[in-house]
């Protein structure tokens, strides 16, 4: 029921929040509002109007749950062009704003406030995370090296393409130097562990806050996996890769370091180049020769453990990179773990002549230090090779996930839409009729 007394013509009443009116005689009606008398702009009288909305109270409180909507397919992020610099992970305006604040404090002579680990001290809560990443990194290399004896993997000798199947696919997407002569067809060879886990290395530094690595002194530093270097700087103790542990924080004014505790000479590292040393478990070099093929009944369990180790390594690296600084070149694939990038002139990508071969350092992403290396998903390893005319119906997955799935591991929920498992691949004759 609606009872409203209209105002006089030409009157514009003010907007006032309605006041609830208590109807004690009608307990089953809840929404009742009374509009009080207002003073119009012109002298005019207004009668009281009452708005009554009848609705019964619900018998019980109902809660609405969010429906989980699972997408059917997800496209991978586009491949960035090589003739442009990579986009900044942080908006460039935010970087400029922070630089202005640091410059203003430096002009006033105020010391910059640095929290661990930006001041050279360890973060105690992240030390167990670093040890967990190292342990799962060893399990990941061991499990993958054993699964490669069972699951066939092919790699292109001209580009970085990898395919997990009994034979290479027929999709013409090769970007190698001589791909134009083969019209985009790949040259497939037997793949190795380095084709699945792309080796991303960085210089190991005893003091990350010490002197920068010059181009002339680059051979004085050893190259190790970037994940291992990140864990070492986060608190993992490896005798072969020592790292300076500070007790006093670093002090800075702007970009100038006013106190770093002096320079310390790097200690001599003992040589241990044999495959049987504990240090060899951290590197993928020669992993297939170190580990024998697994037993047939142990393959599903091994595949699941390897997949879990992969997810734990990725989770741990993401958590460590939120606090510890990792730099990546905006033009090439070079990565440096530390507060500042090195000065080695080995960048040969877009317009490297303008930079004299120096890298264009910016904050790194997780995919740059631990690349997923996506491959085409194959539903049957022994089926027909993938066709280029049907590639829009095929999904993709990280190469390691693809190997573990074909070895008996469960498909993770986060990769199902990416692999397009719910899409039926039509025949080549039916592909043109699909909307």
UniProtKB/TrEMBL annotation:
Alphabetical list of InterPro entries matching this protein:
APO_dom
Q: For the APO domain, which residue ranges apply? A: 155-240, 328-413
Enumerate the residue ranges of region (Disordered): 278-298
Which Pfam families does the entry link to? Answer: APO_RNA-bind (PF05634)
**A Gene Ontology molecular-function term?**
RNA binding
Q: Which PROSITE patterns match?
A: APO
Q: Which domain of life is it from?
A: Eukaryota
Read off the PANTHER family from this record.
EUKARYOTIC TRANSLATION INITIATION FACTOR SUI1
Q: What is this protein called?
A: APO domain-containing protein
């Amino acid at each position: 029921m609606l009872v409203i007394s209209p105002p006089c013509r030409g009157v514009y009443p003010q907007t006032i929040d309605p006041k609830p009116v208590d109807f004690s005689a009608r307990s089953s009606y809840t929404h009742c509002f009374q509009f009080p008398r207002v003073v119009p702009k012109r002298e005019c009288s207004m009668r009281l109007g009452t708005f009554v909305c009848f609705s019964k109270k619900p018998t019980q409180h109902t809660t609405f749950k969010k429906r989980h909507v699972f997408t059917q397919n997800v496209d991978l992020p586009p491949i960035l062009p090589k003739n442009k610099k990579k986009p900044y992970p942080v908006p460039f305006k935010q970087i400029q704003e922070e630089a202005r604040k640091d410059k203003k404090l430096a002009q006033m002579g105020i010391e910059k406030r640095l929290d661990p680990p930006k001041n050279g001290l360890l973060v105690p809560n992240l030390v167990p995370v670093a040890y967990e990443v190292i342990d799962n990194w060893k399990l990941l290399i061991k499990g993958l090296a054993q699964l490669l004896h069972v699951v066939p993997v092919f790699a292109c000798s001209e580009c970085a393409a990898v395919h997990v199947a009994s034979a290479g696919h027929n999709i013409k997407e090769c970007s190698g130097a001589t791909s134009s002569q083969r019209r985009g067809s790949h040259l497939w060879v037997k793949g190795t562990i380095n084709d699945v886990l792309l080796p991303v290395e960085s210089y190991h530094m005893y003091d990350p806050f010490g002197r920068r690595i010059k181009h002339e002194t680059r051979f004085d530093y050893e190259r190790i996996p970037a994940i291992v270097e990140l864990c070492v700087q986060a608190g993992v103790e490896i005798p072969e890769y020592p790292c300076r542990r500070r007790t006093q924080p670093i002090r800075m004014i702007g970009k100038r370091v006013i106190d770093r505790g002096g320079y310390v000479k790097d200690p001599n590292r003992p040589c241990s180049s044999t495959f049987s040393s504990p240090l060899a478990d951290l590197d993928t070099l020669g992993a297939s020769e170190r580990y024998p093929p697994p037993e047939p009944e142990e393959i599903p369990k091994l595949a699941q453990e390897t997949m879990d180790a992969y997810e734990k390594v990725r989770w741990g690296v993401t958590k460590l990179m939120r606090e510890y600084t990792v730099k990546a070149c905006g033009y090439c694939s070079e990565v440096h773990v530390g507060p500042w990038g090195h000065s080695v002139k080995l960048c040969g990508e877009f317009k490297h002549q303008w930079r004299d071969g120096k890298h264009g350092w910016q904050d790194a992403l997780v995919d740059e230090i631990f690349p997923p290396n996506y491959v085409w998903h194959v539903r049957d390893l022994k089926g027909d090779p993938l066709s280029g005319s049907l590639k829009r119906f095929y999904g993709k997955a990280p190469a390691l996930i693809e190997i573990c799935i074909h070895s008996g591991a469960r498909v993770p929920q986060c990769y199902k839409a990416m692999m397009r498992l719910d899409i039926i691949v039509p025949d080549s004759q039916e592909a043109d009729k699909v909307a």
